[in-house]
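Workshop exercise sheet. Pairs work together: one partner reads the sequence aloud, the other fills in the structure field after running the prediction. Swap roles for the next sheet.
Pair: D.N. / O.F.
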Amino acid sequence: MAEKASLVSWRPDIKVLDCTLRDGGLVNNFRFSDEFVKALYKANVEAGVDYMEFGYKASKDIFKVEDFGKWKFCDEESIREIVGDNPTDLKIAVMTDVGRTDYKKDVLDRSESVIDLVRTAMYIHQIPAGIKMIEDAKNKGYETSANLMAVSKVNDKDLDNGLELLAESCVDVIYLVDSFGAFYPEQIERLADKYLNFAAKTGKQIGIHAHNNQNLAFANTIEALTKGVSFLDATTCGMGRGAGNCFMESLLGFLRNPKYNLSVIMNFIEKYMLDMKKEYNWGFDIPYLLTGIFNSHPSSAINFIKEGRTDYSNLQQELMDMD
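Structure field:
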């Protein structure tokens, strides 16, 4: 049964997952240097972070290798160049994607891999295909999660049906994903209750992956954890597509578990993230706020910013016309 908590207690069941390389990789096409990745791995180990997601297991038959850095594909040898046999308490995660991952070939048996957790991203209509991928990963010996995307666009009946299917599957963790940064804490509270009720029937855990379009990723994450959500996604400096994600430094600063060491993350930010933040454009901004308000994909805001536009009221009208 999930544990609920007040804002002044701590939860031993909480698992913090760093997805800087995966969601942040959408900012720079996964072109992180080995020095950066090794330093982030070391920082996560020393900070007591529970999981580190290295990127996607994308199909090389679909995506051109030369167009991306290696964390788009997360080859086993690439991960081992960073972690060796990973003789630490930190667990390694990767993301598979329905229709974009050759999972039967590219996800090795757990006995041959340093990966611990295979996450599977899917939309509501892809749940049957996603469950097949999860079953494959589970049979190979991995921990698994189902990351159900864009639920702000899904009606309650379809969401209930989808959650029932996932709760009855072999998956370990079901993620509440605010893909467009459209939810407010009150909505997260209601959704967390819904997810947890389905999860309780079959002993699943629930996670949250929040985007920061309305500057609410951190607020929504802690709202979810106080309801009993256990797996919490975050990125260093909030690095992620568009407005980014819940800030790791905010989350670790909030959690009362003494295992987490915020100072290590602060040192990493000082050495590696400040220059990267100047080079790449991510984080809360008015165009992302508008896409969050109108529950729209952030691509409109990304293009708006790339074009150097500042006619915010026109963007607002464009988004209203799309609704």
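Discussion prompt: The mean pLDDT is 95. What would you look at next?
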